[in-house]
Amino acid sequence: MIEKIIILGSKGQLGTELCHQLEPRDDLRLVAADVEECDITDGEQVRRFFADHAGRGEEATAVINCAAFTAVDDAEEKRDLAMAINAAGAGNIAAACRDVGARLVHISTDFVFGDGHNSPIKESARPDPLSVYGASKLAGEELAMQNNPATAVLRTSGLYSPWGKNFVRSIAGYARKKGALSVVHDQIVGPTPVAPLAEVAVELATAPVFMGGVYHATVEGGCSWREFTQAIVDLLQIDAQISPTTARQWGAPAKRPSYSVLDNERLRLVGLDRFRRWDEELELFIGRYGDTL
Ligand SMILES: NC(=O)c1ccc[n+]([C@@H]2O[C@H](COP(=O)([O-])OP(=O)(O)OC[C@H]3O[C@@H](n4cnc5c(N)ncnc54)[C@H](OP(=O)(O)O)[C@@H]3O)[C@@H](O)[C@H]2O)c1
User: Fold this and answer.
1) Per-residue exposure over 227-257, b if at least 16 CB sit within 10 Å of its own CB, e if not
2) Tens of pLDDT along 222-281?
3) Whose CA is nearest to atom 21 of ligand 1?
4) Cystine design at 293: which of 35, 172, 201, 236 (Cβ 3.0–4.6 Å)?
5) Which atom of ligand 1 is nearest to the CA of 167?
6) Is there a domain that residue 226 lies in?
């Protein structure tokens, strides 16, 4: 039975949510670390951190890695840094997990996929990243699974939370300030709140029988960023004009797939698909946090 959980990247969006969910539990010991305590690009530091903090023998440990370089556009110019954190960093963590016999739940992204999809993408589909970020995350998945056989990869999409930098918070701010926004309508995604993802990560990490491999872990269904924006301003009752633009006109430095909605087939098979439709999850989120956005 898992008794200890180490959260890496604990100050990010997902890491913060995981800490909130795990702190009240008295059946699990929580160790939370961000780059100050454990820089995942430094293999020796990661090994020392695990030697000091991972439970041995009786105290079985699971690690949930949320640490990442997540600035998708910046990664185009900072390839080495993105690779060091998202690829080599994931490999370092997995090697340290193997050394202490810990399970690893590693978080990845829909951006490992490229163009050519038009229905929800299953885990068995072939990745084909279009960006440096996507390539670095795919390399991280591979290294994590190579270095530690007890690794589960959760691919998610468009994460949002009440804290940190994310689309929902940015749109709420811009829409109130500017009253009119152009938003990309030709990229279809599955924007996912951190709360159900954190629940699934913990359930997988603590499952009586660990089932590794790749899992898709996003909301059900998909929407364009423009549709998502309209839903945000409607739910927040912000009076703003939302007009469509294309990804080409928007001209972001990193290429993104035109359709990257994921199908949580494997989570359904193991009875752990805890996600609602994208619009229901957004409504729940705004109902709970709308006043703070
Ligand atoms: N955000 C999304 O829309 C999205 C979509 C799909 C998948 N994902 C994946 O989901 C996971 C969680 O994302 P998130 O949005 O919670 O990320 P986040 O908010 O950017 O948090 C990442 C955390 O990792 C830390 N970090 C950066 N470099 C590190 C290093 N060398 N060693 C240790 N920690 C380091 C960051 O610290 P600093 O802030 O100081 O750099 C930050 O606290 C990531 O694997 C990401 O790739 C995210």
Assistant:
1) bbbbbbbebbebebebebbebeeeeeebbbb
2) 999 999 999 999 999 999 999 999 999 999 999 999 999 999 999 999 999 999 999 999
3) 12
4) 172
5) 3
6) no
